[in-house]
Specification:
Layout (H helix, E strand, L loop, with lengths): L1 H32 L3 H11 L3 H4 L1 H13 L1 H10 L1 H20 L6 H31 L30 H23 L2 H32 L1 H9 L4 H20 L2 H23 L2 E3 L9 E2 H4 L3 H28 L14
Antiparallel strand pairs: 1-2
Helix pairs in contact: 1-4, 1-7, 1-8, 1-12, 4-5, 6-7, 7-8, 8-9, 8-12, 9-10, 9-11, 10-12, 11-12
């Protein structure tokens, strides 16, 4: 039952990264692919029906973590207090930028919110990537089940690493590039005109950068956490994730060159899911690895609540997630058409 809930939390986080990830990617590309005010309105209109709903998956994943693995939640949220505050502020600023940009026609006002949208989206992607890097690398988890997450110490992985070091920063950069490429694939699918053309032009080099930086980060991960790849090799069934990563990248490039826009975006989503699935499979059963002493690490078995509670929670989670999937499927079907340029700006 602990393994099942480990997988459920991983799936919920993966869905969040895929769905809200294209929002972050669009924000990162906002200033570069949309040159005119009309194009920036078109860009915001493209994500308008989705962006705030996508964030529900983050709240859901956090709630499931509290329910199933409260010890991991308590340790992680206390140790990562500073980055979590950064995430909350960045999410607030992104929402304000999207909603307030078109409330006034003053150029300075719109420029300020455009820049806020770009910076908050870029930093959100980097912070989320760095957080994943911390989970892979390990944190200075003590015997009491808590740790002090300083922003940085000596910029080196080790017994007492900071949140930022020479490993977690490249992972954050890789996350930002990947989500920017994911956002470009979304814009290729959802937009028309010059905005579509620029998004397509940006997508190919971005995905090439994803492959290049991905190889580098894979090597760095081997240096920092070789056990992850050893675990994957010991579990032959995980090879399906490696195959999925390679095939999804192949189809991303092929779809971009052949003009298959929706399949290209779906291939982008599958690539991200496969990367996260491979990471989760290589980490299991570890949830928080202690750099102080491996004995202090938290696993799915040691951090989970009782099996009775997990079984009861499953009976509520299944119908809830089915309703959420049906709602989002209907939402994306309803707004499946491309977004044209118009005089109407997104906002309430």
């Amino acid at each position: 039952m602990e393994a099942l809930w480990y997988g459920i939390v991983a799936v919920m986080l993966s869905i969040y990264v895929v769905l809200d990830g294209f929002d972050f990617g669009v924000g990162i590309l906002h200033l570069f692919v949309a040159k005119t005010d009309a194009e920036r309105r078109q860009l915001l209109n493209a994500i308008g029906p989705f962006w705030n709903g996508n964030e529900v998956w983050l709240l859901s994943a956090g709630g499931l973590l509290v329910f199933a693995f409260p010890a991991v939640y308590a340790a992680g949220f206390s140790g990562f207090y500073l980055p979590l505050m950064m995430v909350l502020w960045l999410l607030v600023l992104r929402g304000l930028a999207i909603e307030f940009r078109s409330k006034e026609e003053n150029k300075l006002w719109r420029t300020f919110w455009d820049m806020t949208f770009f910076v908050s989206s870029l930093l959100m992607a980097i912070v989320l990537g760095a957080a994943l890097g911390n989970v892979i690398r390990g944190v200075p988890l003590g015997k009491d089940g808590y740790f002090d997450g300083a922003l940085f110490t000596n910029f080196q992985p080790g017994v007492n690493p900071g949140i930022l070091d020479w490993y977690t920063v490249p992972v954050g950069v890789f996350a930002a590039i990947t989500l920017a490429a994911h956002g470009a694939s979304f814009l290729v699918w959802k937009t028309t005109g010059e905005l579509h053309a620029r998004a397509l032009k940006a997508a190919l080099p971005l995905w090439t950068a994803v492959v290049t930086i991905g190889v580098i980060v894979t090597f760095l991960t081997h240096l920092v956490r070789p056990q992850l790849y050893q675990t994957l090799m010991e579990r032959p069934w995980t090879f399906v994730f490696a195959v999925s990563i390679i095939l999804s990248l192949f189809f991303v490039f092929r779809c971009l060159k052949s003009g298959k826009e929706l399949p290209g975006f779906l291939a982008s989503a599958i690539f991200i899911i496969s990367m996260l699935a491979a990471t989760a499979a290589g980490m299991y059963p570890q949830m928080l690895i202690s750099t102080v002493d491996p004995a202090f690490s938290m696993t799915a078995q040691t951090a989970a609540i009782g099996s009775t509670g997990l079984r009861l929670g499953l009976t509520w989670w299944i119908p809830s997630v089915i309703l959420a999937i049906l709602y989002f499927a209907n939402l994306y079907r309803t707004f499946a058409a491309k977004t044209e340029q118009s005089d109407e700006a997104y906002g309430h």
